[in-house]
Design goal:
Keywords: Oxidoreductase
Order of helices and strands: EHEHHHHHHH
Shape: globular
CATH class of the largest domain: Mainly Alpha
CATH topology of the largest domain: 6-phosphogluconate dehydrogenase C-terminal fold
Protein name: Prephenate/arogenate dehydrogenase domain-containing protein
Strand order of the largest sheet: 1-2
Distance between the termini: 24 Å
Helix content: 55-70%
Structural class: mainly alpha
Number of domains: 2
Number of helices: 8
GO biological process, one term: tyrosine biosynthetic process
Strand content: under 5%
Radius of gyration: 20 Å
InterPro entries: 6-PGluconate_DH-like_C_sf, PDH_C, Preph/Arog_dehydrog, Prephen_DH
Pfam family, one: PDH_C
């Protein structure tokens, strides 16, 4: 993604586009506000939701965790990401993340209200509606994500599973502030 801004020289934007294309990428232009809202929804809030769910497992008996299926593993996989990296990302995009979380909270409040009396008229229909809305959302995700060229995939794998995996948690990159 390339975000154009009035303070960025057009030549820098052209260079960024060219670099992305030379590396085999598909360059997408977004204005900064659209970028922040987009990454909040497709990256930052999924990380938060995964981490929050995974944190609920801290005191779960190991016998119970031994019964976990692929759904829990899929949902919590990204919770293993480096906390220090996410502190910086979430703080930098807090307003967009909060707006998305308010929407999630409204959906959770709706589901909680329904589940508090699951035998009430329309309760099962409301649960089905919420699940159907999830089906509709996931159906919109392209089957194949945009991928890095194979050479860059190998380089990324060689560095470690996560960006910053070579640094301890909450350790900022040199030259940056926490």
């Amino acid at each position: 993604m390339v975000c154009e801004h009035e303070e960025v020289a057009p030549e820098a934007v052209r260079l960024a586009r060219g670099l992305g294309q030379d590396l085999g990428g598909i360059v997408t232009f977004l204005d900064p506000a659209e970028h922040d809202e987009t990454v909040a929804l497709i990256s930052h809030v999924p990380q938060v939701m995964s981490s929050l769910l995974a944190s609920r497992l801290r005191d779960t008996p190991l016998e119970a965790l031994g019964l976990a299926g692929q759904g829990l593993r899929d949902t919590t996989r990204i919770a293993a990401s480096a906390p220090g990296m996410w502190v910086q990302i979430l703080a930098a995009n807090a307003a967009s993340v909060v707006r998305t979380l308010y929407g999630v909270r409204a959906d959770l409040d709706r589901l909680i209200g329904t589940l508090e009396d699951p035998t009430a008229d329309g309760a099962r229909l409301d649960i089905a509606q919420l699940m159907s809305e999830g089906n509709a959302g996931v159906a919109r995700i392209p089957r194949q994500a945009r991928r890095l060229p194979e050479g860059l995939q190998r380089a990324h794998r060689a560095r470690g599973r996560h960006p910053g995996a070579d640094r301890p948690p909450c350790s900022p990159r040199s030259g940056s502030s926490a």
